[in-house]
Every structure is written in C-alpha cells, then in structure tokens.
Design a protein that fits this description.
It comes from Steinernema hermaphroditum. This is Serpentine receptor class gamma. It is a multi-pass membrane protein. 75% of the residues lie in helices and 3% in strands. The chain has two domains: 2-264, Rhopdopsin 7-helix transmembrane proteins; 297-309 and 332-592 and 601-606, Up-down Bundle (Rhopdopsin 7-helix transmembrane proteins), CATH 1.20.1070.10. α7 (118-146) runs antiparallel to α8 (154-182) and α21 (394-426) crosses α26. A two-stranded antiparallel sheet has the order 1-2. A two-stranded antiparallel ribbon has the order 3-4. With 625 residues, it is mainly α. The protein has helices at 2-12, 16-19, 22-25, 28-60, 63-71, 73-94, 118-146, 154-182, 187-206, 208-215, 217-227, 240-246, 248-255, 272-276, 278-281, 284-296, 311-339, 350-378, 382-385, 388-391, 394-426, 429-437, 439-448, 451-460, 483-511, 516-548, 553-572, 574-581, 583-594, 601-624; strands at residues 96-99, 107-110, 462-467, 470-475.
C-alpha cells in the first residue's frame, strides 16, 4: 500500500493537481510516506534473514540452539523492528516533498540530511543481507544433503524450500537495485528496471501465502478446516508460523494490497511519454509486446505469408495437445465410472444417462476438431496434408461431416440436459415419469436429427485447401446450403432454449424451499449452468463471426483465436464440473482409488431395516426365555 502511495499513484499522473496542493506537496505526508516505504523494505529483508537462520537452526543444529532461539525470539523480533529506524531516521530529519515536472509525472524527492543517500543504504543492506541469507541457505542445503539424519524431518525441509523460493525473489529484487545504482545514467537500462521492478516486488511480497499453502501440511489442514467452519488448534512448526506472520505475510499484504493497476496496462495512456522514449520504442520492450500479440492473434491470421510455421505455432499446438491428452483420459475414466456395474447403482438417473451421451459427444467433437481444424491449420504437417488421399476424397469428407454432425448432436444433448434439470427440479412427479419414458426416444433424436443438417456434406464432398502456409478444411456447397448459417441457427436456438430452462429453474429455486434431496439435483443444475455460460459465449462468437465474416478481418481473426480455447473449455470441462458438483461421483472416484465398497442408498436402507428386524427378534427370544 505504501509503495502504491510512493510510486504507483504519483507516477501515473492521474492525481497531478492533487499532489501540487500545498498541504500535500510538502510537509509530513510525503515525509511519512517515504519513511514508511524505506522502513518497511529494510524490516522485510531483515525478517527474511531471520527466517533463513531459523531454518538452519531447526534442521541442522542441536536442540540447545533451538531452545536458545525460542527463548530470545521476542527480543530478536523487537530488533527487527528497531534496526531499520537507524537507517531511516535521516528521512524524518531532512523531510521530503512531491515534485511534478512536466508533462504529467510526479514523484517524491527527499532532502538529503548530512549527505546521506538512501540508494546507497538500500544497496548495502540488500547485498549484505542477500549474501548472509545465501550462506545460511547453502549451509542448510549442505547439512541436508550430506547427512541422512537431517532428512528425517521432511516437514521442516519443505518450509526451508519455501524460504529458499522467497529468497530467490528477493535476490532478483536486489539485482535490480544494484543495476539501478550502478547504471543510473543509462536511460535504456533504467527504463527496463522501472518496468520490471513492480512485478518483481509483487511476486516478492504477495507469493509467500501461496508458497506456505503448497509446502506446509499443517497450514493446509488449518485452511481446510477453516473453510469447513470447524474450530481447530493451530499447529506451530518450530515457531516458523510466528516468523512468517510477523512481517512478510501481514505487512506485505498491507504494503501491496492495491499494488498493481497503474503500471500493468501499457496501452492505458498513463505513460505515453515513457513509451515515446526512443529506447523504449525499439528493442527488447516492443519485441516482447509483439510476441505476445502474435501469440494470441496473428497465429491464426488468414493472410499469413510466412513460408514455415512460426515458433509460437509450435508452442500453441503442443500446449493445447499437452492439456488435451490428460482431459481425454479423464473423460474415459468418467465414462467408465458412470458405466461400470460396480458403481452404476448410484448413476441410474436420467441425468447421468444423458451426461454419458454428452461426454461421448464432447470427446468425439474434440478429437475430430483436432483432426479437421487444429492439425491442418497449425501448418506443422503440411507435407502430410499434401498427400492426395488426405487432401481430397472420402477422408476429408468424413472428417468435415463429423466436425459438424458432432457439434449439432452436442448442442441438442445439452438442451435435453437443461430440460432434464427443469423437469426433475421444478415440475410435478407425473412429468418426471413422462420424461423417463421418453428418454430413449430423445437420445435417438439427438443422434438422428443432425443428419438432416449435414447430409449435403456427404454428397458435395470436402477437401483441404492451402491458405498461405497452412491448410484449411472446406467443402463443395451442394444446393447452395451454408454450414455457417445452419450452425448459427442451431447454436442460437440451443442457447435460447437452455436459457429459458435455466431461468425457470432459477425462479423455482428462489421461490421454493429446498430439501436435502432437491439440493443434490440443484448442485447438478449449477454444473449445467456453468456449461451453459460457455455454450452461450460460443453462440455469441458464432453470431459475430457470421455478421463480420465479409467486412471485419480483425474481428474474424480474434474469433478464430478464441474459438479453439472455448471449444476445449466446452468439451473438456464437464468431468471437472461433475466432480465438483456430484457427491456420488466423488464417492465413486474415491472408492476406485481406495478399492472401497460402494453402498447405494437403497442397500443401506434395506440393511438398516434388516438390523432393526433382527434386533426385535432377538429381544422377543430373550423375553420368551
């Protein structure tokens, strides 16, 4: 927070007139802000040095050193809070003031008292404490690696890993401080330092809770119990929690609570003069921006004229393939759980029947989307695409047919799932019985109706045509039928019907009291609602693409960039949503990995009734005797 007041707001120029006010331009406000900023930085790095020393003492030193450390802990903490005053008192004595040179930037200048330079103090403290922490961490690593007895307490070693990660971030920050001090007159270098420092400082101050959550079992247990609203006694591991909570966690959270909006958006217009600097207009900085822009937009530019696939295409292709393969395995595992006789007792409802069909359609849609669109459009397999059998004939026709048939079936099945939620949650039982009887005809309709929308592809045929350095799937229009119009009508219609069903269910949930049984169905509705949002986004993209296909190439390029990721999200997220929303499915997954036995609700009721009958019979026999 103080760093924001010291650097982010003044540098933005948004409140330039405010900083020119006499009551704020000079006096105690800028002096106090500058003092607290330097004081907090010193206290932060001193505390990290103590945490590193704590790890060395706890892991590798005899117990008497640990007892001595615990005994003097409060005095050490007081020293951490007092020593920075010796390095910052001159700021209070000399004072500070806001300076606003043209055109629109403000910053705080301190009046040097006795010629003391803050930059020199910061450099010395950063280098000395960095070297000390490095030696302490090196000693800890040596003891852990060289002697097996120090590797017994794995919990403490994991907390040392946390400390080492935070130290690495502080080391990067210290390196930037050193560069700023030694190359202060180099404008190009200082521009890079000023650009990187806010992000490094954010990582340094805001990453500690996440590292603690990853490395500490005790902290994860406390977090889990806190989220479950259960009281528990904290388990302090060698006073590490006290060290962390004193300064880095609590203080850093306050120091950087609002520490990121201004410098994060280069195109916001707040730093126009900075970006007009010749050293910034060319070189490393615009190269990074162009790479990011090319990654997200230009990789799918239909006017590409390169002769070979770009590096970003390789990265994009293999990244998508990397997360798709585990999702395919997750889908197969989900279908197995829902279909296995061992677990099928809990998944005989109409929802899970439709969900299995939806899962198979999602998986098929994703696979054939890769074969028909992703792989040819990546440009990585042009030599394969040039083979006549693959370029034209039955193979591209079948792929193109399935790439439209499966999405149509997917949309219809999703509408049926939304309708299922409406029937089960909001309508009377007689409609549920009617729905159960008509379930299989509806599933046949899901598989048959899309043929009416795709038969012309089989008759007209399809082929792969080269566009620049990539291949694109295309088809011969039979009878002037346009797939884009069919897809638009189907997507918008399915989204509209699902929207009506979801609104009706939401109104029912809000106006009626929910029971434990209905809450189970409502959680599955929330899963359906999340998937609906993804399908609705796809429908909007289809609409925009259809409207702008001939007049706005930039918009079409953006849609082509976003659409594969939305397809992945729509096709690959269902098992994750099911795992989050369905208690029976989570129980089945747990039983699969633990080889436990699943007891259906009906069996548990029968078992309870048998126990009651047996107890009554035993009581009667005891009375007769």
């Amino acid at each position: 927070m103080v760093d924001w007041l010291l650097l982010r707001i003044p540098h933005s120029g948004i409140f330039r007139n405010l900083f020119k006010e006499p009551n704020l331009a000079s006096g105690w406000p800028p002096t106090l802000i500058l003092f607290v900023s330097y004081y907090g930085g010193y206290a932060q790095i001193f505390n990290l040095a103590l945490i590193a020393l704590n790890r060395l003492i706890v892991i590798s030193m005899p117990k008497q050193y640990y007892f001595m450390w615990t005994k003097h802990l409060k005095y050490i903490t007081i020293a951490v809070l007092l020593v920075p005053v010796a390095l910052t008192w001159h700021i209070l004595a000399g004072g500070a003031a806001f300076t606003c040179p043209p055109p629109d930037m403000c910053f705080i200048m301190h009046k040097r008292f006795l010629g003391i330079r803050n930059s020199l103090y910061v450099l010395i403290v950063s280098l000395v404490t960095g070297a000390f922490i490095f030696l302490v961490n090196l000693a800890t690593i040596y003891f852990v690696v060289s002697q097996a007895k120090f590797r017994n307490n794995w919990g403490e070693i994991k907390l040392f890993i946390l400390t080492f990660l935070i130290f690495t971030l502080h080391l990067v920050h210290a390196a930037l401080q050193t560069i700023a001090y030694l190359r202060g007159k180099d404008q190009a270098m200082m521009a890079i330092v000023f650009f990187l420092t806010p992000f490094v400082k954010d990582l340094t101050c805001l990453s500690a809770p996440w590292f603690l959550l990853i490395t500490s079992n005790a902290f994860r247990r406390l977090t889990t119990k806190a989220l479950k609203f259960k009281k528990t006694k904290p388990n302090d591991s060698s006073l590490f929690a006290k060290h962390v909570s004193m300064t880095p966690l609590f203080k850093d959270l306050i120091v950087h609570l609002i520490n990121w909006p201004t410098l994060r958006i280069p195109f916001s217009g707040l730093f126009n003069d900075f970006f007009r600097d010749p050293t910034i207009e060319t070189g490393c900085f615009p190269t990074i921006l162009i790479f990011i822009n090319y990654w997200h937009v230009h990789v799918y530019d239909m006017n590409a004229t390169e002769t070979s696939p770009s590096t970003s295409k390789y990265i994009l292709f293999y990244t998508s393939l990397g997360y798709s393969i585990p999702c395919y395995a997750l889908y197969m595992f989900t279908v197995y759980i829902l279909s296995s006789k061992r677990y099928n007792k809990n998944f005989k409802t109409s929802f899970f029947t439709l969900f299995k069909l939806q899962a198979l359609l999602d998986l098929g849609n994703e696979l054939f989307n890769w074969l028909c669109w992703r792989i040819p459009f990546s440009g990585l397999f042009n030599s394969v695409m040039e083979i006549p059998v693959i370029k034209t004939g039955p193979l591209p026709t079948a792929l193109y047919f399935l790439c439209y048939y499966l999405p149509y079936s997917q949309l219809i099945c999703f509408v049926l799932i939304s309708l299922n939620r409406l029937v089960v949650i909001a309508l009377p039982p007689k409609f549920q019985e009617l729905w159960q009887r008509s379930l299989w005809p509806c599933m046949v309709f899901v598989l048959v109706f899309p043929i009416l929308l795709t038969w012309h592809i089989l008759i007209g045929g399809a082929f792969f045509s080269k566009m620049g350095d990539v291949y694109n799937a295309n088809y011969n229009k039979f009878g002037g039928i346009r797939n884009s119009l069919y897809m638009l009508v189907m997507t918008v219609s399915a989204s509209g019907l699902s929207f009506i069903c979801n609104i009706c269910v939401i109104v029912y949930i809000v106006t009626h009291k929910t029971t434990k049984k209905s809450w189970t169905e409502i959680k599955l509705f929330f899963m359906t609602l999340a998937l609906f949002v993804i399908h609705l986004t796809q429908a909007l993209l289809q609409l925009v693409a259809y409207v702008n296909v001939s007049c706005n190439a930039a918009c079409l390029s953006l849609i082509l960039t976003m659409n594969p990721y939305l397809t992945d999200l729509a096709c690959l997220s269902s098992p994750v949503f099911l795992l989050l929303s369905s208690s029976p499915f989570r129980t089945a997954v747990k039983a699969f990995f633990t080889n436990a036995r699943i007891i259906s609700p009906q069996n548990s009721i029968m078992k309870t009734q048998n126990i009651v009958v047996r107890s009554k019979v035993s009581n009667m026999s005891s009375i007769n005797t």
